[in-house]
């Protein structure tokens, strides 16, 4: 199948498929005489595996490690367990960060109970005040998606 068919079959944008190829997560496909990529059922299976890992918010390095381990079926799964345990730790850390973010946002929202003139807006004044007292490094960095 061509890349468009792979994209449609797996629900993955063409650019994402090309990105996974560049990252070495998806093996390079064969090329037809017209230089089109030719994907096999193994590509569909690998892409489904990658997408499931991404749905679990795994980083590309984690997925790369899982793929390498998956290709060594004689090994025990101790390394996979350790990788997943570490990932669970990252998720727990992000949950704590998100809870702190929610608390900060609720406190900021509480500064403006009723609509006022923008010059008297408690939210904008709170943001301005925090920005003015900041030393250039925020107390906590932005909460990102994948760690």
Can you walk me through this structure?
This protein has a domain at 3-55: Multidrug-efflux Transporter Regulator, Chain: A, Domain 2, CATH 1.10.1660.10. A two-stranded antiparallel sheet has the order 1-2. Helices cover 59% and strands 3% of the residues. α4 (60-70) runs antiparallel to α5. By secondary structure, the chain is mostly helical. The model has no long low-confidence stretch (mean pLDDT 88).
Write the layout of secondary structure elements.
Blueprint (H helix, E strand, L loop, with lengths): L2 H8 L3 H9 L7 E2 L5 E2 L2 H15 L4 H11 L7 H32 L12 H12 L14
Antiparallel strand pairs: 1-2
Helix pairs in contact: 4-5
CATH architecture call of the domain at 3-55: Orthogonal Bundle
Q: What integer value in Å does the Rg equal?
A: 23 Å
Shape: elongated
Question: What is the straight-line distance between the termini?
Answer: 34 Å
- Can you count the helices? 6
Reported for the largest beta sheet, the result is: 2 strands, antiparallel
The CATH topology of the domain at 3-55 is what? Multidrug-efflux Transporter Regulator, Chain: A, Domain 2
What are the segments in which pLDDT stays under 50 over at least 5 consecutive residues? none
Mean pLDDT across residues: 88
Helix/sheet category: mainly alpha
Assembly of the depicted chains: single chain
């Amino acid at each position: 199948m061509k890349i468009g068919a792979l994209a449609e079959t797996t629900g993955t944008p063409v650019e994402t498929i090309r990105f996974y190829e560049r990252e070495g997560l998806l093996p390079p496909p064969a090329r037809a005489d017209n230089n089109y990529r030719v994907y096999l059922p193994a590509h569909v299976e690998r892409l489904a595996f990658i997408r499931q890992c991404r749905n679990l918010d795994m980083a590309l390095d984690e997925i790369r490690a899982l793929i390498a381990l998956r290709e060594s079926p004689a090994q025990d799964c101790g390394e996979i367990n350790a990788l997943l345990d570490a990932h669970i730790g990252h998720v727990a850390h992000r949950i704590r960060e998100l809870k702190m973010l929610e608390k900060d946002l609720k406190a900021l929202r509480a500064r403006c109970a009723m609509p006022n003139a923008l010059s008297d807006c408690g939210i904008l004044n709170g943001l301005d005040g925090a920005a003015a007292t900041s030393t250039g490094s925020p107390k906590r960095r932005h909460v990102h998606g994948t760690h």
